[in-house]
Amino acid sequence: MSTTTKPATKSLLAEARDVQRAIDLIRLGARLQVLESETNLSYERLLKLYKEVTGRSPSKGQLPFSTDYFLQWQPNIHASLFENIRQSILKNVAVDDIDAIMRAWRLYAEQMHACGLEPLLSFTRAWRLSRFMDAGMLIRTRCTCCGGHFVADPYVNKRHYVCGLCKPPARAGKGQAAGALRAHE
Predict the structure, then answer these.
(1) Cβ 23 vs Cβ 29: under 8 Å
(2) HEC states along the chain?
(3) Would you put residue 55 in left (φ > 0), alpha (ψ -120 to 50) or beta?
(4) Angle at 103 between CA 97 and CA 105, to 5 degrees
(5) Annotated binding residue at 115?
(6) Annotated binding residue 146
(7) ∠ at Cα 163 (158, 169), nearest 5°?
(8) 143 among the known binding-site residues?
């Protein structure tokens, strides 16, 4: 008798986990490039799965690759909330990084909806943010006024850092976009 049955079972279980993870990622709005990065499934399989889950073809084009987006006033507040949730999960729960991102994004989205705000971070942007943070391209730094931790450029002067909530830019919160943060008058 051959013992090749055990590895085949293991690979079937691993494949089933990858398929379930891909389904969960698709339902959260992940782009195809994220699925390719976070699973061991082929592009063709992921494409077919994406179409089956969503009923449409995936978005085309490159993923955003600039840290600048996360440093703008309103996106920075959202990015900082998401990243603080993710760091808390990573610190307190034994999960894979992608599972921490998924949990953090769900909590972030729930918090935004509870506050009547539109989430500015798509799942794919949140995933990209986590990659920038893990690579040291962005860091979390403490605001010298409120003590909160905010996403910042790694070269920021930490001794004098003031967040966008404590010192918003002149036009911050004046826009008319639905679900946007508003400055109190």
Answers:
(1) no
(2) CCCCHHHHHHHHHHHHHHHHHHHHHHHHCCCHHHHHHHCCCCHHHHHHHHHHHHCCCCCCCCCCCCCHHHHCHHHHHHHHHHHHHHHHHHHHCCCCHHHHHHHHHHHHHHHHHHCCCCCCCCHHHHHHHHHHHHCCCCEEEECCCCCCEEEECCCCCHHHCCCCCCCCCCCCCCCCCCCCCCCCC
(3) left
(4) 100
(5) no
(6) yes
(7) 125
(8) yes
**Using one digit for the tens of pLDDT, what is the confidence trace for 34-59?**
999 999 999 999 999 999 999 998 88
Give the pLDDT confidence score for residue 169 in this predicted structure. Answer: 87
pLDDT digits (tens, 9 = 90+) for 98-151: 999 999 999 999 999 999 998 999 999 999 999 999 999 999 999 999 999 999
- 137-171 burial, b for 16+ CB within 10 Å, e for fewer? ebbebebeeeebbbbbeeeeeeeebebbbeebeee
CA 84 centroid distance within chain: 11
CB atoms within 10 A of CB 112: 18
pTM, full prediction: 0.84
CB 117 within 8 A of CB 181: yes
How crowded is the C-beta side of 164, counted as CA atoms within 13 Å? 23
